[in-house]
Amino acid sequence: MENIYTARAYRIPGRQKFSITFRHPGMIENGRPGRKVSKGLGTADEEIAKHLEGQMNNLLARTDLHSLAGRGSAASLFDERVVEIFYSHWEPAITSHRATRDRLLPIPKDTSSTLLLGITGAGKTTLLRRLIGTADRFPAVSVNRTTTCEIEVITGSVDYTAVVTFLTRHQAEQQVIECFSNAVLKAIEGSTDEAVATEFLEPSGQRFRLKYVLGPWKERLEYEADPFSFNESIGETKSEFPAEESKFLTATVQRLKAVALASRKEVESILGPFETLKGDERDYALDEAQRAAEQSEDFLQLVSDVMEEIAERFDSDYGNFIRSSTGWPESWKLSVPSNKRENFLAALQRFCGISREHWGNLLTPLVTGIRISGPFRPHWVPEHETYTHVFIDTEGLLHARTTTEVPSDLTSRFKDVDSILLVESAKTALHSPTSGKVFEAIASSGYTSKFAVLFTNMDAVTGDNLTSPASKRAHIFGGVRSVLDAQVARNVSRESARQLAAHLQENTFYFAYLDPKGYPASDAANVEKFEALTGAALWQMIDQLECLQEPVLQRAFPRYSFEALGLAVQEVSLRFLAIYDARLGYKPLETITEAPWQSIKAMSRRYAEGWLFDGFWLNPIDTLIAVTRNVLTRFLEIPLNWEGKRVSDEEKSAVIEAIKRTVNELLTDISRSRLWRVPQSRWKDAYELRGAGSTDTRRGLIRHLFQAQIPVPESVSNRAAQAWVEEIKELVIKAVEKVKVQQENTVTKGSQPKR
Questions:
Q1: How many CA atoms lie within 13 A of 635 on its CB side?
Q2: Which tens digit of pLDDT belongs to each residue from 41-55?
Q3: For 31, left (φ over 0), alpha (ψ -120 to 50), or beta?
Q4: Same structural domain for residues 526 and 622?
Q5: Taking residues 428-439, what's their average pLDDT?
Q6: Band of pLDDT at residue 142, cut at 50, 70 and 90
Q7: pTM of this structure
Q8: Which domain holds residue 25?
Q9: Are 561 and 697 members of one domain?
Q10: From the CB of residue 58, how many other CB atoms can be counted at a distance below 10 Å?
Q11: Are residues 586 and 655 in the same domain?
């Protein structure tokens, strides 16, 4: 007989609003349905809370509605708050935050747009400041991992408007749970209070930094002299009184340590003292203790308390918060006249700021995107010229952890913009393997014609052999050619590398001192001259970017031999499985690091619970898309023959690029289906696994899942492999047919810039 669970509404001591707790029949705990959850109800009225408690109990009793398919019927029977709380655990965490911004602040049609991308610290945001004419601390910049969401800036508007979108409550809660879970692990291992606090306030991924929202942990009084600063206080030490200690954070650390101690004792009573355990036995014991902690009542209550603390940070009368039925903010909007610029930019600091003096009141980690429009206009734009453009700053490619794939949510943006600008520092020119992977993604997804590269920090390019600007540019571009030869030619195709090299010869830009604070000591006249030169170069770059466009497609159709496609799919499978054999620790592979057991578990949790689109560094879907795209590029570039109008090699390349773009769009759904939707129950089995040797067994289950879902075609008798080949074949046929329709409906575009 199926268990019927009950709900209870309660008020957390010291807080006004009620929460509700119940065991969710659709969530697994210890291998059985019924994981306990706690959610805010968004009301301080006890009568309303009790009414919602009764409705939740009625829904828990309706087992016929206990699936995502039952949401429609439930919506007609129960309060929308009850429906939102109950069904949020079943719905995948794919919320279209961008669609919300489109609805609240549409991007003007026929406005040129540029996507900025690059590794962390390359200077994207500093460049954005130059492009929109803001030197007043917006957007925030620092040396490490500052931009953690999309920042879209629309220039040329009359007044200022901003729209900010946020993580859903469920998404935010999952992040808090993971932060606390990692902190509990630190506490289980006997770490200091400071180490435990750091683990949940500033996790190693440095993306979801709760210190911005909850405030910093207390610091020592003594500060050493700064050996990296040259000023009047060099060599001096100083003492400062720390900010008042946060009672909430202190209590949170003590509660975490109590949860950790209880779970450690529980596991040690079965497996023995942790100090006596080594290797896999210790990993297993830590895994069990971490799981026991997560499933405890005290841990659940702590997460609920922190979520309520976070929710209080959204209380503000400035701007307009648009909230869900339970009161959780979905978006924020503000519109002010042009003469309120300072107020406008100051208000935005709360959503993208990082300044220490504001820690404890910032919402930066909870923001999924910021879109602003206004009369942004740099001083270097000629007076007689209009300046209407959209600039999209993106999260640095190394935010979470070193990985070689460009995220698919980023490559999916390529089709929406007119130009794609990779920002790279000349100090470390293309030394990161991720920068090379950007080149691969551009070449294999068919967006060479939209692509450009900008090198910052050209002032750092020095050497006895570099005696002129031309020699410095040639030196840096030599690194571009090296990456194209070593990575793109090998992993994608030589033809793609050749086309990209030829295109970048005319579409690579070089700048020094984009950050004016970096100017060496100089007189004002020299600074003014340099500013004028930099402004002229930026204006020339904008003009060139606005002229980039996809070539007009001619009426010529490539024909392919699909007999050879089986070999291409075989290569895809072998490459993908080799990468994850290395990450799972089965077979070493150059440049691929073995993932620790905690990361393997975190990956399985995301795929099991459907919140895998948060930028976590292990993402098999992104890997499969990248590998498939690269391999199919070589297949697409060598058709059997061409039908239709006689065309030049350049025109043929344009058609193949269009097919590659369509393949890139179609691959996302196939990859998600193969690696997530279809095998989700197997991911749940892997995540929920427990017992002796579970960490190794989990790796094995995931490996078998990959081998089953991405089989290696070796013979016609392997039906699963043949179905995989047919799926890719249908994708390619669909892409070719779609491009044929585009060719037939092509209307020649003007060659003038959109400005």
A1: 27
A2: 888 999 999 999 999
A3: left
A4: no
A5: 81
A6: low
A7: 0.88
A8: 8-87
A9: yes
A10: 15
A11: yes
